[in-house]
Design goal:
alpha/beta, 8-stranded mixed β-sheet, Rossmann fold, about 280 residues, single chain, 8 helices
């Protein structure tokens, strides 16, 4: 069959720039080093890469494992709507406990700002997004202070303009409630630190102030790993400080289930981002 079709473009065509090194970190008992990478989803046509708002994505994994590529297929949906998407490596425990992953998150943001012109990014419209452990890093990218800005590109800001936090592990003051492997993962992330004030100091609800950026929190009320109460406490802290914030509770949803990544939730996120980024 021979057919003539009207040539028209209804959807943005994308390109994956994979394996871009953004930081070098100590490795193997500090005897050597290794790079950390990020992947960028951008318009394929270079002339369409300009003034792109950026979603900076951190995957989960109990701070003990991570794979920046796991969520690439899902994140493409955001890139099709006009966002650049950066999927970021970070160090994991027990080899690299807190604050190493937070330092990495901040370093990735600074690197993206330093290279905004090269990739057509809008440095004034950065959003951090993550799930589970990555949700904590997204929150800390917004709430963590200058003590986490170490390394390269210190002439660039690590500030962000919005946060989307999927069921993040954001409170460490109640870690004694966890059992088994979940308790071990938290203790590894704490790095065996004996400072009794550390869990409170690294809990996001205690870091909120009136200058915190807007935040959307999404959590299931049947989450067996991260209690909904952690997200509720963070949301209440944001509300007390007058910060633009939303808490979406998914009825019957557990931890990391596919229901969190369906079109209705994506629409909520895109509406939130459109509002907070103007």
């Amino acid at each position: 069959m021979k057919r003539y079709l009207d040539a028209k473009q209804d959807e943005r065509v994308l390109s994956l720039l994979g394996g871009i090194p953004y930081k070098v970190v100590p490795h193997w008992y500090n005897a050597t080093v290794r790079p950390l990478y990020l992947d960028l989803i951008l318009p394929k046509q270079v002339e369409n890469r300009h003034d792109l708002p950026v979603i900076i994505w951190f995957c989960g994994g109990a701070f003990s494992v991570m794979d920046r590529e796991v969520w690439l297929p899902t994140l493409i949906d955001y890139a099709k709507t006009g966002y650049a998407v950066a999927c970021v490596d970070y160090r994991t425990s027990p080899q690299y406990p807190f604050p190493a992953p937070v330092e990495d998150a901040k370093a990735a943001i600074r690197w993206l700002r330093a290279h905004a012109g090269e990739y057509g990014l809008d440095p004034e419209h950065f959003v951090a997004m993550g799930e589970s452990a990555g949700g904590y890093l997204a929150c800390m990218a917004a709430l963590g202070g200058s003590e986490f800005d170490v390394g390269e590109n210190l002439d660039q800001s690590s500030s962000i303009q919005g946060v989307v936090n999927y069921y993040g592990k954001v409170d460490y003051a109640l870690c004694e409630q966890y059992k088994g492997s979940d308790r071990r993962a938290i203790e590894d992330f704490l790095g065996g630190n004996s400072d009794p004030t550390l869990p409170e100091r690294m809990s996001c609800r205690n870091l909120v102030d009136r200058e915190s950026p807007p935040m959307l929190i999404i959590h299931g009320d049947a989450d067996p790993l991260v209690p909904l109460s952690e997200s509720e406490a963070l949301y209440e802290a944001l509300q007390r400080c007058g910060v633009r914030s939303e808490l979406c509770i998914l009825k019957g949803a557990g931890h990391g289930e596919d229901v969190f990544y369906q079109p209705p939730i994506r629409r909520i996120i895109l509406d939130f981002l459109a509002e907070v980024l103007h």
